[in-house]
Specification:
alpha+beta; Peptide Methionine Sulfoxide Reductase, Chain A; 6-stranded mixed beta sheet; two-stranded antiparallel ribbon; 8 strands
Length: about 210
Amino acid sequence: MIFSKQKKLQMPSQAEALPGRSERMPLEKVHYVTGNAMSAPYPEGFERAMFGLGCFWGAERKFWEQTGTYITAVGYAGGFTPNPLYEEVCTGMTGHNEVVLVVFDPEAVTYMSLLKQFWESHNPTQGMRQGNDTGTQYRSGIYYFTDSQKQLAIQTRSDYQTKLDEAGLGSITTEIIQAPEFYYAEPYHQQYLAKNPSGYCGLGGTGISY
């Protein structure tokens, strides 16, 4: 999935980051899997979550498979470049992470359930990579929208670290920050593995249950 030969392992500064553009990425009207509207407004009472756990193709599939998910979308967050292109993100010079935005019904699936899926679906100890995918865009991250989400993210990170310690694994490198601006990825990335069932997915967990 890496088009660029540059595999940046350090975040660029804002001054170093690519300039980007003002034009927004076009967005398909409905989710390819759920058939629900991709754009807000969403049903009353629904909530948002955002995660980075490696290649967003496989990560998105993990969350649209969850009962209670209304829509998912892949995009870029946590960097400096406005409205980046995928090829720009791959250079490591935008600072963005590949992330999944999840809109969900909290009456059908809890945020804690989404966090469990997050921790178990990737290896959160690998820093600026996930498996063979190397670079800042593959870092582990939880991007919270509310104080409650923040507290649960911190709590589960501590709990999961205890389990990793017991298994002799490394330290968690997951960043937990307030949800930054989300930039939708190109339309062909959205629900990619539903459109391309034999497509690449390098996502793999530690084998440790939360």
